[in-house]
Amino acid sequence: MTLDDILNVVLEVYVVNFYNYKLGEWKYYFENGNQKANVLYEVKKFQIETSCKDGDQVTFGQIIKEESKFWNEIGQIIKPSTKLVYELETVVFNQEDYHSESLSIQKGKVKLELIADKK
After folding, report:
1. Beta 35-48 vs 56-63: how paired, if at all?
2. Proportion of the chain above pLDDT 70, given as a percent
3. Which of 114, 110, 105 is nearest to 56 (CA)?
4. What does DSSP assign to residue 20?
5. Which of 38, 50, 100, 110 is placed for a possible disulfide with 46 were both Cys, Cβ 3.0 to 4.6 Å?
6. Which residues pair with 48 in a beta bridge?
């Protein structure tokens, strides 16, 4: 077994064990305290582009719109905009002191983006 093989196994275990998605019921609120959304997420497999030819599969939480409710700031039930769904499904996490990463669903695939922290 080469060093590359060992590093690939370590990376695989890290990716499999890292919990990077939303699951189950989540509640969101506006700054005024009114409820913004009561969302149910289900876990699905999505394609993600990598440096490998065919990319890879990643587990990620997607909103079940039919079982979720959304409100505007004055408490009226609304149909969620594409932008709101995108914002709620996106997961942002800090990797190091100088950047964060976001995972989001875009065009049926999960996309990983680096966010440079300004210090």
Report:
1. antiparallel
2. 79
3. 110
4. -
5. 110
6. 56, 110
